[in-house]
Amino acid sequence: MTANSVLQELAAYRSVNNILSIYLDTDLRSKSKEAVRLMLRDRLRGIEQHVPAGLLQRLADYLDFEFDWRPRGLALFVSEELWQVMPLPVAVPAQAVWAAQAYVRPLSDVIDRFGAYNVALIDRQSLRVFAVRMGEIQAQTEALGEALKRHRQGGWSAQIYQRRQDNLAIHNLRQAAEALEAFTEQAGVHRLVLGGSPDVLVQFREVLPRHLQEQIVGEFVADISASTHKALQLSLDVAQQADLAQEQALVQEAITAANKGGQGVIGMADTVYALHQGRARLLLVSDTFHGQAQVCGHCGSVSVEAAATSPGECPLCGHDAVVAVDDVANLAVRKALETGATVNIVRNNAELDEAGGMAALLRY
Ligand SMILES: [Zn+2]
After folding, report:
1. How far does residue 331's CA lie from ligand 1's centre (Å)?
2. Residue 125 C-alpha to ligand 1 middle, in angstroms?
3. Ligand 1 centre and the CA of 322: distance in Å?
4. What is the tens place of the pLDDT at every residue in 295-307?
5. Please, what are the domains in the chain?
6. pLDDT per residue over 233-269, tens digit each?
7. Distance 306 CA to ligand 1 centre (A)
8. DSSP readout, 128-143?
């Protein structure tokens, strides 16, 4: 079953029981297995009392005995009658959501962005192309241009010879571009990662048709003879970097908009309020954010000072609907899902942390 069909089934899945949706960063290059388990425990805090104990146990057993820890990320959707595991090609911020429906947004994001891309590894003579789907190589092809010969003579004739070699290299790169174009058209996927030496990459980009240039997600430096595994891992790093760069850009967009009084808000109070009003189109939450607050269920006003008002009464709308919320991030994510806003959990972003750990881009 393809990742997309799993996604569609999950999105359409309805059950009388709630579903526990879990996302984990399982990239062991930067952390231990124990750290991953701790992160999961942390994310389950606040919802685990609602989840059947058997499910939590099965989850723990899965990580302890079944998961092979090769994928960099992991998504699980589990309930009394559902058990769906999705290895992910990139690390995702840890999250746990207990709700009536599967929380598929991060999965669909990952499939959208990294589920499918093509890798072209090039040098002046040859091309290797891979189709990467959900972190694995699905298809590959190679093309070999005309051989370039080393020249040992010096002098004037050497210059002519060198020019001829350069022209031949350009000719090969053009052929490689054509072969790549044919491959990507057949693959039907429009994301491209390039690998090679820096000077060849510059030349290759120049000979690529514009529509292929626009597909480039990023580049890595590698020798044409790199192993397939190595090329795959390097391309996954590029995909991950592209993800972080995109998060960074979104955070900056929200902060700039908020500072200019435009379509953006920052900080817990303004963000939750905007979410309540259904004005947010994109929610950004720092993965380390854990805010507590008094939130009015009627108008969405947020107050951090517990004693600011008589218990239960909202200072803004006067309704008797104020409740203490232990994890405002969870509330915000739920509210975003209810109102059709995209959720982006953001990692390692000092700007968002300084802005209060939470921000949103608004529809109006
Ligand atoms: Zn209120």
Report:
1. 16
2. 68
3. 7
4. 888 888 888 765 4
5. 3-113 (3.30.960.10), 117-226 (3.30.420.60), 246-362 (3.30.1330.30)
6. 999 899 888 878 888 999 999 999 999 999 999 999 9
7. 14
8. EEEEEETTEEEEEEEE
